[in-house]
Amino acid sequence: MPEERIWFDTDPGIDDAVALVLAASEAGPAVEGFSSVAGNVGEAQAAANVLRVTRAIEEALPGALGSPRLARGADRPLLRPARHATHVHGEDGLGGRLPPLPVDLLPKRDVLPAYRALVELAPPGERFEGTLVALGPLTNVALACLCDRDWPRRVRRLVVMGGSIEAGGNATAAAEFNFFADPEAARIVLEAGFPQLDLVPIDAGRRLAFTRSQWSRLEGIATPVARLVRELTGFWRDRVEAAGMVVYDAIAWMAVHHADLFDWRAYHVTVDTAGGAADGASVADRTHRPRPSNCRVAVDARAEPFWEHFFALLKCGGGAGTASPDS
Q1: Is residue 325 domain-resident?
Q2: Residue 321 falls within a domain, yes or no?
Q3: Cα 285 to Cα 287: distance, rounded to the nearest angstrom
Q4: Overall domain count for the chain
Q5: How many Cβ atoms from other residues are within 10 Å of residue 266's Cβ?
Q6: Which of 100, 109, 135, 232 has a C-alpha 20 to 30 A away from that of 298?
Q7: What is the pLDDT of residue 241?
């Protein structure tokens, strides 16, 4: 698989952390950097969590990530009060499973604001021939779009974990959390004109709940990276045992490198920002009238090959490009 440049915009979040572990296992040297955004937790905690997770990855997979950058991002949505999900991820966002980060290790927010870092990935006259992976609310990405209206067309591919087409919401009856947290930002990004926008909504995870069966399989793998995933997901163990949990951001990472595991449909998708019962809901126009599609949507996934590859990455313990479903 060819190596490419990868940038994560993220708000860790247990499932964000699992996604970063999988990315380091599979494509570590290609991960150029991270930008933090308020979402599952506040922005300062999100930035700290990026560094906590990357330190844990370095211990499990020495040298896997190289020297990725961290740009600190938006600490609030564009127009709304902040909405967090600590009831799902714990007060620190990682279920208290990793050592805390000394505050003096965090870069200041004004050193390289995240939206500027994103624009500089593809400055005027250049293209970002890589993949921008957005795992949290889209505030930073929207700010980059507003800062430079031509910037989206210079980004080869954007992969977004967010929205819901038919599956209903997980933050409200209608809305998925990332879009609900900053619906105006989500709408701006969807309508910005990215040449390839791959949307991975919660529909893609309907067959991919992490259940007792997957937990047992995870416990049977002895590699350092598998132990790290066990530690990160341990906060969810009771929920896994009861009804299963969908590790949405890990699914989005798999869509980055393994699009063949998903069923895709081209839709024009926008976001309700009216503030009513459907606030933050994603709306897909499947008629293609009057506007053509603006994104490719992962509407379903192939569960068996997905889990085979997921656990193959953990079994190999690292090494970009070395895992396969038969590992």
Answers
A1: no
A2: no
A3: 6
A4: 1
A5: 13
A6: 232
A7: 79
Comparing 111 with 225, the larger pLDDT belongs to: 225
Domain assignment of residue 152, yes or no: yes
Give residue 95's domain range.
5-316
Length of the chain: 327
Interior angle at CA 199, CA 181 and CA 180, nearest 5: 15
Q: Report yes or no: 177 and 160 within 8 Å, Cβ to Cβ.
A: no
**Does a structural domain hold residue 37?**
yes
Q: How do residues 29-47 score in pLDDT, each as one tens digit?
A: 999 999 999 999 999 999 9
Give the CA count within 13 Å in the CB-facing half-sphere of 200. Answer: 27
What's residue 102's pLDDT? 85
Determine contact, residues 151/127, Cβ cutoff 8 Å: no
- Judged by DSSP in three states, 28 sits in helix
**Positive or negative: CA dihedral 285, 288, 292, 297:** positive
What is the three-state SS of 293-312? CCEEEEEEECHHHHHHHHHH
* Cα(33)–Cα(291) distance, integer angstroms: 34
Question: Mind listing the pLDDT tens digit for each residue in 231-244?
Answer: 999 999 988 878 89
Cis before residue 290, ω within 30 degrees of 0? yes
Measured distance CA(310)–CA(5) in Å, rounded:
21
pTM reported for the whole predicted model: 0.94
Residue 70's φ and ψ, nearest 5 degrees, are -130, 120
CATH code, domain carrying 11: 3.90.245.10
CB 128 within 8 A of CB 9: no
Least confidently predicted of 57-61, 68-72, 242-246, 253-257: 242-246
In this structure, what token pair is assigned to residue 176?
């998925």
At 108, give phi and psi (nearest 5°).
Answer: -70, 155
